[in-house]
Structure formats: C-alpha cells, structure tokens
Design a protein that fits this description.
Layout (H helix, E strand, L loop, with lengths): L1 E4 H6 L1 H10 L2 E5 L2 E6 L2 H8 L5 H6 L18 H5 L1
Parallel strand pairs: 1-2
Antiparallel strand pairs: 2-3
Length: about 80
C-alpha cells in the first residue's frame, strides 16, 4: 500500500494512477488518510461489480449508433404535448 500527500497527488496525478494499477494508493490530507485511489479492476473485485452500460460505451472504439434517437417521422414530440 502506498501513501501520498494530497499535495503530491495534485502535483503528479499520472504517477499516482500508475501506482494505483499495482496497489491501492492512500491520499492523505494533513497526515490523515482521506481518499483511496485504485484500479477499476481492483474496485470491481472488491465490490463484486461487473461492467455497466456506461463502461461499455466508454470503451475505445465504441459507437453510440444503437442509441441514436429515432427518425423524426417515427416520433413527434410535439404530438405528446397536445
């Protein structure tokens, strides 16, 4: 487990992210732990969570083509307001 100050974290976030890939990183504020930075894989293992729709859409190369709004002729929003 690595421990870094919030000042060091703010000055070099990239380094903290690299460390968090290997093990949790505790961030301290005035010497007291306030946050934990960990990889998403470690978080999922800890919580038992699986990939969500948001995770899948955020993947490189993912397209939202399946989520495009319907064509204007298939749904008229103004008709619902009448």
């Amino acid at each position: 487990m690595k421990v870094i100050s919030s000042r060091d974290f703010n000055q070099d976030v990239s380094s903290a992210k690299r460390l968090a890939r290997l093990e949790p990183v505790f961030v301290t504020d005035r010497g007291k732990p306030t946050h934990v930075l960990m990889s998403i894989a470690a978080f999922r293992q800890l919580t038992g969570a699986t990939e969500s729709v948001v995770d899948l859409l955020a993947m490189p190369g993912a397209t939202g083509s399946d989520l495009d709004p319907p064509a204007a002729e298939s749904w008229d929003r103004r008709a619902d307001l009448r």
